[in-house]
Amino acid sequence: MAVIACVIGLALAAAWTSTASAGTSFVDGISDQKLGEWSGNYLDSSGLFSIPFPSFFSATWVGSGATHLRYARFVTAPDAIAQGGACEQNLVSWFRYATLTLHVIPVIAVWNVTEGGCVNHGLPSTAAYTSDIAQLLGYLDTLGAGPVPYIEAWNEPNSSSVSASQAAGYWSAANAICATDNCVAIAGDFVDNDPDQGSQSFAPGCVAGLTFNSHLKPYEVSYVKALGTARPAIWGFHPYYAVNCEQSTSVSTFEQNLPTPAGQVWFTEVGAWECRLGQSPARGAARQQSDASYLVNTLMSSTNPAAPAHVFYYGMAPLVYTQSCSKYADSALYMGVTAPGSLYARPAAATIYGIDSTLAAQTGAATSVIASAATLNGTFTPGGIYEAAVSFQYGKTTSYGSQTAVIQEGPGLTSRSASYGIGGLAGHTTYHYRIIATDTNGLPRYGADASFHTP
C-alpha cells in the first residue's frame, strides 16, 4: 500500500510541473525562509540601479524558461497551525507569496524548529505527528494555490536527535496522509555533517578522505530497514560536506545504501559557504565560487549517473547571517544589509545561476539622419542577473572604427530599447553601425550590421 500511495502521489503532484527529470543541470529550487526580507531593493554591482527585489527575482530567476527556478522550500513546525500566532502567519505568508505571486512549486519540510515564531515542542509521537501533518496540509490546501504537492517528513533527522526508526515512522505517517491528500512524502532528508571524524565541527572543517561509514551510513541503513517494503519515490539529502569540502563521498555513501528501486534523489538544501568572518583562515569569495562550481559541474553534471533530480539552494539572507559562518545562510547568493533595505549579489550567484543565455542585441534603423549627425537605435536583453552595458560601433566600413560611450543598463530579462546620437559625420556618405550588449563577465552580443546614407 505504501508503494502504491507514493507512486500515485507523485503522479498527482506532477500537475505542478511540466517535466519529470532524472537529473537537473541547473539549480531549480530555493530554500529561503525570509521572504519578508524581500521587500528591500536589489542594487546591481555598480550601485547605479535600485530594483525592488521581488520584481527582480521574479524576472530573473522564476519562470518557465529552461534555467529558471521552479520550486521553493519552507521549514516549519509540524504543529504550526496548532501553534498559531507568528509560527502560522509566517508559514502562510511564505506559502501565499511563493505560490500566488512567484508561482513556484511549494515544498514543506517539518522539524522541531525554533525559527519563524515557532516553539520547539520536541519530538511528537507518531499519532500526534499524524494529526499535526493532516491539519497542516489540510489548512494549506485551502489557501487557493491547490494542494501541497510535496512534504519532507522530517528535516535532518540524523542531526536532530531523532532515532532512525522514529524518522521512518514519520515518513510512513506522512505518506499515508499523502495517499488521500494528493501529495508526495519525501523520505530521508539526511544531512552529511557526521563524517567518521566524529565530533569535528563544521565551520566548515574539511580534511582529506572524508568517509561516512560510522555515522551517516548506519543511520540510513536503520532508516531503510524500518521502512520495511515501502519504497519512497523521492529521497532528500543535504550535501553540505560534499560541496564545501569538494568531496563526493557522502553523496555516494547515501545513494549506495538506498533501497532498490531507490526513486529520485533531491538535494533539498545545500549551499557553498563564504565564511569571510568568524573563521581562520577565512574561506572568502573565491572558495565560495569554487565550491558552488563543484556542486554545479561535478555533483550535478549530466555525466554523473548519481546527479540529483532537483537542487534547492539558499538565495537570500540578511547581513547578520552572511560572511560569519554562523549559519547556513552564509551560503546565500544575495545579501541583505537592512530589513527592509538594499540587497546585493554575492560572488557565487553567477555560478549557481548558470551561463548567460538571455543576453541579446538587435540593431534597429537609424533616425534623425542629417548631413552631419544621426541617431542610432537598437534593442537589447540583459543576461538575467548579469547587468548589461550597451554601446554602438559605427564607421564608413564594417570595420567601424568608432564607438559611442558605454551606458550601464542594469539586470533583467525584458527586452529594452537603446538610442545614441552621433555627430561629426560627413555628408553624402554611407555609414555602417551595430549595437553591442556586454554583461559583467565581459561577454559581448553584437547586433547585425546596418547602414544609413547622409544627405
Using only C-alpha atoms, the radius of gyration works out to 25 Å
**First and last CA, distance:** 82 Å
Mean pLDDT: 84
The named CATH superfamily of the largest domain? Glycosidases
Q: How many helical stretches?
A: 11
Supply the number of structural domains: 2
Sheet with the most strands?
8 strands, parallel, barrel
CATH architecture group name of the largest domain: Alpha-Beta Barrel
CATH-assigned fold name of the largest domain: TIM Barrel
Structural class: alpha/beta
What is the topology?
Layout: H1 2-13, E1 29-30, E2 41-43, E3 50-52, H2 53-60, E4 71-76, H3 80-83, H4 85-101, E5 105-110, H5 126-140, E6 150-152, H6 164-181, E7 184-191, H7 216-227, E8 234-238, H8 240-244, H9 249-256, E9 264-270, H10 284-299, E10 310-313, E11 316-318, E12 334-336, E13 343-345, H11 348-353, E14 360-363, E15 374-381, E16 384-395, E17 402-403, E18 407-412, E19 416-422, E20 430-438, E21 444-446, E22 450-453
Structural description of this entry:
- With 455 residues, this protein is α/β, with parallel strands linked by helices.
- It folds into two domains: 2-353, TIM Barrel, CATH 3.20.20; 360-453, Immunoglobulin-like (Sandwich).
- The chain has helices at residues 2-13, 53-60, 80-83, 85-101, 126-140, 164-181, 216-227, 240-244, 249-256, 284-299, 348-353, and strands at residues 29-30, 41-43, 50-52, 71-76, 105-110, 150-152, 184-191, 234-238, 264-270, 310-313, 316-318, 334-336, 343-345, 360-363, 374-381, 384-395, 402-403, 407-412, 416-422, 430-438, 444-446, 450-453.
- The strands form four sheets. The chain has an eight-stranded parallel β-barrel with strand order 1-4-5-6-7-8-9-10, surrounded by five helices. Strands 16, 17, 18, 20, 21 and 22 form a six-stranded antiparallel sheet that branches. Strands 3-2-13-12-11 form a five-stranded mixed sheet.
- The longest helix is centred in the middle third of the chain and has 18 residues, at 164-181.
- The model is unreliable at 1-21 (pLDDT under 50).
